[in-house]
Amino acid sequence: MIKAEELSEPCYLIRNLFWYSKHMHERPKVGVGLLLIKDRKILLGKRKGAHGAGEYAGFGGHLEGLETFEDGLLRELAEEGGPDIKVKNLRFLSVTNLRKYAPKHYVDIGMI
What element of type H or E holds 74? Predict the structure, then answer.
């Protein structure tokens, strides 16, 4: 929320106009994420990446060109968890518009 007194500060206006003009034409990237549940337990890992470092999350990453959501998730699962992890009954969970890590912007497809 922008405070009224901040709007009168020229530096604030210039800085934010520059930021928005630089990033508003960029399209969000598509991410895929998986909550892996077995025996009523969820497998999480601690993120090391460029955003969300230190946070706990399920498996996931960027959706590559022409991949289905399922294929992208299975590829990410093999990359991050190894080829021995098998998934049954993959189902849609959510769509999230992630702007928390601005200027990065993702639309995340969550599956379970």
Answer: helix 69-81
Buried b (16+ CB within 10 A) or exposed e, 71-103: ebbbebbeeebeeeeebeeeeeeeeeebeeeee
**What pTM did the predictor assign?**
0.73
Q: Which two tokens stand for residue 77?
A: 């699962």
Cβ-based neighbour number of residue 109 at 10 Å = 21
What is the rounded CA–CA span in Å between residue 19 and residue 105?
14
DSSP 54-73: T-EE-EEEEPPTT--HHHHH
The answer to whether the CB of 35 falls within 8 A of the CB of 51 is: no
Contacts of residue 13, defined as CB under 8 A and 6 or more positions apart, other chains included, come to: 7
Render pLDDT for 63-98 as a digit per residue (tens, 0 to 9): 999 999 999 999 999 999 999 998 989 999 999 999
